[in-house]
Amino acid sequence: MIELDDTHDPARTSWLASANTPDCDFPLQNLPFGRFMLPQDHAPRLGVAIGDCVLDLAVLGHDAPADMTELLTASAASRRTLRALLCRALTQGSPRQGQYRAALYPLNRVRLLLPCAIENYTDFYAGIHHARAVGSLFRPDAPLLPNYHWVPIAYHGRASSLLPSGSPVKRPLGQVKHAAEDSPQLRPTAKLDFELEVGIIIGRPNDLGSPIPIDEAASHIFGLTLLNDWSARDIQAWEYQPLGPFLAKNFATTLSPWIVTLEALAPFHAPLARPEEAPTLPYLDHDEDRRHGAFEIALEVSLSTARMRQAGETPARITSSHFARAAYWSAAQMVAHHTINGCNLRPGDLLGSGTLSGPTRDQAGSLIELTEGGKTAITLPNGEARRFLEDGDQVIFTGKATKDGFRSIGFGACVGEILPCPQYALPRD
Amino acid sequence: MIELDDTHDPARTSWLASANTPDCDFPLQNLPFGRFMLPQDHAPRLGVAIGDCVLDLAVLGHDAPADMTELLTASAASRRTLRALLCRALTQGSPRQGQYRAALYPLNRVRLLLPCAIENYTDFYAGIHHARAVGSLFRPDAPLLPNYHWVPIAYHGRASSLLPSGSPVKRPLGQVKHAAEDSPQLRPTAKLDFELEVGIIIGRPNDLGSPIPIDEAASHIFGLTLLNDWSARDIQAWEYQPLGPFLAKNFATTLSPWIVTLEALAPFHAPLARPEEAPTLPYLDHDEDRRHGAFEIALEVSLSTARMRQAGETPARITSSHFARAAYWSAAQMVAHHTINGCNLRPGDLLGSGTLSGPTRDQAGSLIELTEGGKTAITLPNGEARRFLEDGDQVIFTGKATKDGFRSIGFGACVGEILPCPQYALPRD
Known about the structure:
The structure is a homodimer. The first copy, chain A, is an alpha+beta fold. Chain A is built from 12 helices and 27 strands.
């Protein structure tokens, strides 16, 4: 585990006032990395979020990383050095204030990109309450399959359709077969859903054929993001046997703009939802990970409908959950499992945690759970009802790592708005 | 469909004698594209296979494509122009013979790479005989699921572990649970298998949110390769529910070195294994594709064991199959299906066909089918028996497009050798 140092000191404040407000996601203790562009730019810049601004890492001059890969693959020591340097320079009273202030851009004036180029995206299924709840809808006789407690279940997602927060999501077309029908039809999905996940960004790679042992796994993780694994439940139900979800998921996956580093998260380690005494194969078992493999991250999902925005109403919170109360497997276990067969992880690769539903229904991380498969609508404060997402709905994820005695740090929002299904002209012979 | 022209004329011969031998994979009529490096190179070169040589595309001077993406995304007209130009220059009596001869390198003196950079890899399941045979082993009660005849089933594979032909493959470790056991153990797979597939390489991309109609799908396909989707059956059986195969497949996937273009394959169109009258949703249905959606490509798998190589014996053919007799879905249907939800395909993306087993057991494209799940060993000419692959086994795929009245064209071999499972030290607490 990464040791605490004076960059985690909650008493430390910045000369940038917006970083010191209590509800700010990006205080001095966070310093998450991302990529952004100014209106005139042709290539991404590397940045660090601080208060309501982004700091252009070009301020580091000769020491600035050439690209995100250099940052992702840096040694633990140089990551620590960079964090300490940025923290000092942004601290109240720093002699570098003038130089650094000139490299700040207001967040609302820049375009935020995916935080890094992502070659491969794997989605895990580590949220045990979600696995049980959704399993009971798809397979009432066997909600949690016998392998669940042994295997960190995962499948490969689609890297090409990963989107930065704020990108719209078009309602997908797909094959849907209603129970009363003999054959499927091509339809816009009527069961569009979100999935509340945490994304794990890989830093240092491993060679093909060389597993990463569990006791080294954390050193291959750069940091965490929020992730919305949009899902079309009706398409999924018809297509997913026997090889898993495909078109039900790969039309879009939205990522929050900042990678919150493991260094920043060091104060927030917590036990997993897996009981410490649960039997685990040795390659997935490590004492420290067993006791502190999760993080104290509170997660929230809010919905803003077109009608709510027209009426000037604020988004309505529809669920809240928590990483540590939901995750049966740790990020380190996901890395150790993913590579045990020799599979190679690349810098910037993304691992989704799986939907992080809490143990009770009001903590569910997807609508299919909140509405019992669409049976029971949820009602929004303005009286609108939702079973699944409608066109114009905006889904907003937020996350906050919180612990007594430490400054809370946030992830920045992961936002997507549903656009209508595009008109589709069938081909002519 | 691409029209035939004089580049398909079987009477045309090359000034390079090796291109004119009857069993040569790379006659003048083929001209497949790939990437290679000379011993002193630091970056890949683009090449075309001809006879026993590779032609460095730098010979085109100012007209040489800057990289494979430029070639992949070229218009149909410019692809046709390039093919005609290369064909003429390599034809007997060409005035460019001297210039082109200077750009030839013997194939056995260069290192062949993956034919293009591949961002995304999707594996389909279009071989209906394989789907039925393997389905009956994993699910005796429901070998072919109800969605099979409607949905071109697919899942996302792993791009990072794609390997060029000739790369060794280490036997993977993984969780395996024997029927008599209460819990799984970490073991080297004892059921290592190959899967005989054709790879489809995407040329022109589509935008996220914009499906490719079936009547335009072929124009987004650059060409075909051979593909070995190595599989660990014991790992697969334990892990694959409910989200599909993961570690059972993603340790390695081997690709043949050359992309045989749709232009070169134009004479070899053939009906699919799907009956013309089978009901199909309109977005997957197109008259031309229904009648000629497959290709006359004969496929063979040979095995060379360590003992055979020691004794100087040639590899033994263990199965032979045929694209058109095996594939229920066409490459165009795979493209139309993959994008119907708006998913974006990128230049160089790879679609695997799925295992192309023929209708009878001796035409099976995997050992699990040839040996009925490992029950009945196959016997090699030297008396060795195989249920699954053993260390030192070399698996060799070849493919040949053949039709009366046309010059046969080949794919080059797709080869991989199994290395022992690496020693793995369990982590200490």
